[in-house]
């Protein structure tokens, strides 16, 4: 009898593993797709799959706190169009966690790292034609998109929030943002990832800081912006390109259009950090070939750099993101 039960269990497992799962999935709130929620679609993808699965998301506002876990790899989320395919949530640091109990870390309130609307942990993730929003407002740290996976591509997406909008996390992760619109207030692009932003619009909503990199000492690159346009809300007239969240922060702007809201000093030293009091000695902040009223270098802080043409040649997508596996984000389909 035990042998029969064992045989049936093994047979069931083999059938489950051999099940042919779809390479394309459709999400639609009106029931016309395979699933009504994005999380259901993600959950249906085979764990640690070897082939990319494309999840097409029809227009609508999806009120979800979405997680792409580490075992859901090579997933693409593709919206019908960026303006009308919206993933939104409203958690913020200090907000009480609803319901009984605490979160996985024992907290009774959300902290910055758990406020995300979308959390990406699975490698080889792609997002296209989406809006990812934290709608909590100007209430403190509130992350819209939190990426801590390697080889991630975000294309033609709108990432909306206020403080800490985009958390590019993970010292060993590579992230590529192309043709995106990213807006926020304080430190709204932050983290330790190696990340390239190409042809993006970066909008400041208040007097504050665009970036707050926490690059680790062994990393060659941090945040690099190519051909981006930095704009601002009318109320934002005094904005720094960045400040070092940690001592070895690295941020470089190349051939970007810097609006008049960017202060002549360019960069802020983040004084008052007792644990790291001398960040300006190790932070690497540089520019090359920028234009616009905010690109004047005459009054830049002395501890920042202006790259030479030869140094700037060392900044290409291939050199920054290629890595040991020669990853090419431009070739990801």
Description:
The chain is built from 4 helices and 26 strands. With 333 residues, it is mainly beta. Strand 1 (24-27), helix 2 (38-44) and strand 2 (53-57) form a beta-alpha-beta unit. The longest helix is centred in the first third of the chain and has 17 residues, at 2-18. The chain is globular and about 60 Å long. It starts with a helix and ends in a 12-residue tail after the last helix. Residues 1-18 have low confidence and may be disordered.
Sheet with the most strands?
11 strands, parallel
Shape: globular
Mean pLDDT: 94
Measured distance between first and last alpha carbons:
50 Å
| Strand element count | 26
What is the C-alpha radius of gyration, as a whole number of Å?
21 Å
Strand share of the residues?
25-35%
Helical content class: under 10%
Largest sheet, order of strands side by side?
1-2-5-8-11-14-17-20-23-25-26
Helix and strand composition category = mainly beta
**Total of helices:** 4
Uncertain residue ranges: 1-18
Q: What are the secondary-structure elements, in order, as H or E?
A: HEHEEEEEEEEEEEEEEEEEEEEEEEEEHH
């Amino acid at each position: 009898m035990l042998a029969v039960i064992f045989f049936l269990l093994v047979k069931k497992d083999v059938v489950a593993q051999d099940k042919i799962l779809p390479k394309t999935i459709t999400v639609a709130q009106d029931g016309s797709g395979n699933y009504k929620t994005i999380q259901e679609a993600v959950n249906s993808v085979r764990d640690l799959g070897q082939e990319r699965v494309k999840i097409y998301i029809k227009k609508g506002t999806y009120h979800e706190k979405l997680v792409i876990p580490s075992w859901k790899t090579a997933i693409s989320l593709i919206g019908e169009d960026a303006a009308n395919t919206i993933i939104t949530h409203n958690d913020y640091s200090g907000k009480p966690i609803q319901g009984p109990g605490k979160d996985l870390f024992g907290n009774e309130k959300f902290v910055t790292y758990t406020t995300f609307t979308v959390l990406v942990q699975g490698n080889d993730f792609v997002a296209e034609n989406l809006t990812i929003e934290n709608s909590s407002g100007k209430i403190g740290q509130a992350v819209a998109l939190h990426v801590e996976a390697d080889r991630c591509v975000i294309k033609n997406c709108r990432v909306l929030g206020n403080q800490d909008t985009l958390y590019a996390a993970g010292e060993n992760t590579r992230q590529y943002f192309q043709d995106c619109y990213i807006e926020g207030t304080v430190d709204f692009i932050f983290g330790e990832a190696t990340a390239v932003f190409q042809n993006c619009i970066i909008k400041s909503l208040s007097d504050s800081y665009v970036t707050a990199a926490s690059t680790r000492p062994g990393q060659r690159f941090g945040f690099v912006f190519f051909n981006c346009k930095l704009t601002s809300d009318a109320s934002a007239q005094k904005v720094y390109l960045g400040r070092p969240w940690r001592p070895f922060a690295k941020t470089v702007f190349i051939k970007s259009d810097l609006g008049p809201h960017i202060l002549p000093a360019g960069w802020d030293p983040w004084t008052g950090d007792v644990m790291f009091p001398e960040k300006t000695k190790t932070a690497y902040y540089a520019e090359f070939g920028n234009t616009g009223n905010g690109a004047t270098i005459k009054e830049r802080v002395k501890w920042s750099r202006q790259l030479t043409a030869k140094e700037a040649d060392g900044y290409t997508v291939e050199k920054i993101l290629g890595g040991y596996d020669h990853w090419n984000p431009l070739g990801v389909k």
